[in-house]
């Protein structure tokens, strides 16, 4: 089973619209072309699909994702409008992958760059994990740990301690896939791996004290292969 994660597309309603350092739709299309070559079984999009919060951006994204010919799923990021996303693809809280499953969390706080899972969603997460002990991935927009960038860590997950306390009783959780940070990242919280993913749009400079774009880094995606109870993952970059 192959899951491909893409994130932080930051699309504009104008297909030719520019970001700080590139053209978001062209970059997304390049990443999708590379993803197609990797033959995914599932595409997972971990938020910030839109930059200008318009319905047109979700249409452009849906058209791009559909070209992969596999099921695709998304969660909102801090720049997204969930109501507009629902017009194109309903949000789910679980993906059944036979021997594995992915639980999807909405960490968006309206009008805020940082995020939180929230008590209600944490209770639901615990109930999902209580009911099924299959190996589990959790997908969320905001990273649940510090990544070593001062400005980014200030707008991470507000209730990270409560999140990890909830997971402590459930060893079937193997890894967290997050967006938001616009860079490749891997770390461990106890026995749980936490993986960040390059954006399809601009990349952020790792380890920066203040906001900084990494002009040398290329857009990319994360590949996650699930075989039995084994997980392997790596980053793919694309040339523009």
From TrEMBL:
Give the matching InterPro entries.
Calcineurin-like_PHP (IPR004843), CNP_phosphodiesterase-III (IPR050884), GpdQ/CpdA-like (IPR026575), Metallo-depent_PP-like (IPR029052)
Q: Does the keyword Iron apply?
A: yes
Gene3D superfamilies reported in the protein's UniProt record: 3.60.21.10
The answer to keyword Hydrolase applying to this record is: yes
Outline the extent of the Calcineurin-like phosphoesterase domain. Answer: 1-183
Alphabetically list the UniProt keywords.
Answer: Hydrolase, Iron, Metal-binding
Entry's PANTHER family? CYCLIC NUCLEOTIDE PHOSPHODIESTERASE CBUA0032-RELATED, PHOSPHOHYDROLASE
What the record says about family reads: Belongs to the cyclic nucleotide phosphodiesterase class-III family.
What is the designated name of this protein?
Phosphodiesterase
**Annotated organism of origin:** Salinicola endophyticus
């Amino acid at each position: 089973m192959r899951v491909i994660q893409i994130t932080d597309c930051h699309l504009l309603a104008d297909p030719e619209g520019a970001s700080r350092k590139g053209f978001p739709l062209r970059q997304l299309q390049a990443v999708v072309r590379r993803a197609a070559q990797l033959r995914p079984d599932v595409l997972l999009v971990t938020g910030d699909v839109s930059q200008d919060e318009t319905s047109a951006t979700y249409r452009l994204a849906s058209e791009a994702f559909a070209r992969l010919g596999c099921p695709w799923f998304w969660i909102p990021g801090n720049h997204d409008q969930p109501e507009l996303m629902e017009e194109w693809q309903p949000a789910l809280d679980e993906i059944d992958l036979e021997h594995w499953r992915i639980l999807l969390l909405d960490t968006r706080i309206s009008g805020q760059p940082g995020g939180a899972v929230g008590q209600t969603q944490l209770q639901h997460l615990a109930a999902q994990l209580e009911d099924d002990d299959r190996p589990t991935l959790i997908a969320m927009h905001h990273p649940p740990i510090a990544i070593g960038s001062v400005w980014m860590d200030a707008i991470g997950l507000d209730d990270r301690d409560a999140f990890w306390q909830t997971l402590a009783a459930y060893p079937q959780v193997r890894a967290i896939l997050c967006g938001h940070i616009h860079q490749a990242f891997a770390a461990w919280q106890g026995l749980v791996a936490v993986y960040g993913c390059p954006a399809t749009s601009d990349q952020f400079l790792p380890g920066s004290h203040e906001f900084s774009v990494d002009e040398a880094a290329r857009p990319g995606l994360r590949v996650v292969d699930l075989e039995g109870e084994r997980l392997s993952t790596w980053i793919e970059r694309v040339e523009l």
